[in-house]
Amino acid sequence: MRHKWLFRAQLIFTLLVCGFLIVPVILSALAGITQNFFLGIKSGVTLHWLGEVWQLYSGTIYLSLLIAIWCLIATLVIGVPAAYVLAKQNGKLARFIEEIIVLPIAIPGLAIALALIINYGGFRDFRTSWGFILVGHILYTLPFMLRSVLAVLSSTNFHELEESAASLGASFWQRFFTIILPNAKSGILAGALMVVTLSIGEFNLTWMLHTPETKTLPVGLADSYASMRLEVASAYTLIFFVMIIPLLIAMQKLSQKTNKV
Amino acid sequence: MSPHYPRLFLLILPAAIVFTAFFIIPMSRLIFIGGTGENGWAAYYAIFTNSRYLYSMIATLILSFSVTIISVIISTIVGLFLVRNQFYGRDILISMLTFPLAFPGVVIGFLVILSAGRQGLIGYISKALTGDKWVFAYSIAGLFMGYVYFSIPRVILTVMAAGEKLEPSLEEAAKSLGASPWQVVKDIIIPALKPGLIASSAICFATSMGAFGTAFTLATNIDVLPMTIYTEFTLNANIAGAASLSIVLGLVTWLALYIARSLSGTSVAPAG
């Protein structure tokens, strides 16, 4: 029965690790709807703190969604065609370009933000607009879109499909829109979910790039952690979780589906 | 396929323009700006000569190394268990263990405060049990807890991906030849997992080195390198110093990922 003992020990360990990750999240969600965190949940349940967060910070939520949508559009328009070119070309130049585009994953956001501020901080209208934050988000999320589409394209035989379409007289653009894009669909979808999730949660770049007029959700969170009472900060975090968890579930469902095929 | 070069060029042009304008040019200028301080290019040695920078660098390295070791050990046990066993509730468990992947550092800092802060759960429990209120969120232990928190999901995913490729027949053969469970782990499972473990260690190390949000929220007295860069830039207006430090930091994280990729083969992609 050695086997059973080992299984149990591992299961308990796994549950403990899971608890380490999940208990603080539950704690924060509860604190956000508790009258007084110090007295505990028995002090009563309230939506008061959520209302207060909405009053103070709803602007940050709208701005984060706006930036995430534009970031998605930009990474689709820029990233998907680039991924196709990089999947098609096997030369040194193509690998070098790929290496450059994925570099923002390997370099801390702080360094990229500094570089952007030093270069473009002087353009006041640009610096004070949310477009400045958007640029940072595009740099940071593009690698994920590119990788995701590239991985799917590399695993399909799009070369042959393209050649047979070409022999039937399909033009380059017809082939791009009717063969490449449908075949890359699962990669595009996975990349899109990743881009939106990362953009909504991005802090390292955004904290440096934001101005008092352009605060995103994570910037607002940092602000509330530093200056608001624990219940308000928790309620705000709860709103963030409610926004981000459906995206994560969708991502997991998608990866399960593609793994099974 | 050669007649399509102009069109292919057109398709990659938007990415090329955006990256040149907003990444290549700014980063190259950052490298030069790093050499324009009062010490010139020697600023890049300042990480060794300035005691505050050196202290910050060493603290960040030690923190990142220990976080990596602990996270890899924990995640390997959990990841292997999840890959090799089928049981009721397994999928939910996997979901919960990988959710925190997308939590920003600031939120993780806040979760550490809720757990180990002045009104935290750990303090509450420890007070009930021992009469002592344990508060460590704002010390290096709090940072450590936060970093392990955001590392575990990343490493579990990589270990699970590597674990799925393990050959059960090899283990069966070893067992039938009389190998003990420990020998199977040491001689078969660990070597097979090695590329995945190297890759995930590097990702974990690089993320810890560059993490900013958690340290920012906890506002500890230990200055990790990203916090030092931030203070140099905002409080001391030392732009050249901040630039040179962030280039050094970027080199360290990039190098860690690069070495891992060349050791573990190109098939292992970092993150998501």
Describe the structure concisely.
With 261 residues, chain A is mainly alpha-helical.
Largest β sheet strand count, sense and barrel closure of chain B: none
Quaternary status of these chains? heterodimer
Unreliable stretches covering 5 or more consecutive residues of chain A: none
Q: Which two chains have the most extensive interface, and how many residues on each? A: A-B, 86 and 82 residues
Q: How would you describe what is shown here?
A:
The complex is a heterodimer of chains A (261) and B (272). The model of chain A has no long low-confidence stretch (mean pLDDT 90). Chain A is mainly alpha-helical and 261 residues long. Chain A has 13 helices and two strands, in the order H-E-E-H-H-H-H-H-H-H-H-H-H-H-H. Chain A has a two-stranded antiparallel sheet. In chain A, strand 1 and strand 2 form a beta hairpin. Chain A has a domain at 59-220 and 247-260: MetI-like fold. Chain A starts with a helix and ends with a helix. In chain A, 82% of the residues lie in helices and 3% in strands. Chain B is mainly alpha-helical. Chain B has two domains: 1-33, no CATH class; 44-264, MetI-like fold, CATH 1.10.3720. The longest helix of chain B is centred in the first third of the chain and has 34 residues, at 51-84. Chain B is globular, with a radius of gyration of 23 Å. The interface between A and B is large, with 86 and 82 residues.
Index terms:
heterodimer, A: 261 residues, mainly alpha, MetI-like fold, two-stranded antiparallel ribbon, 13 helices, 2 strands, globular, B: 272 residues, 2 domains, 12 helices, 75% helix, disordered C terminus
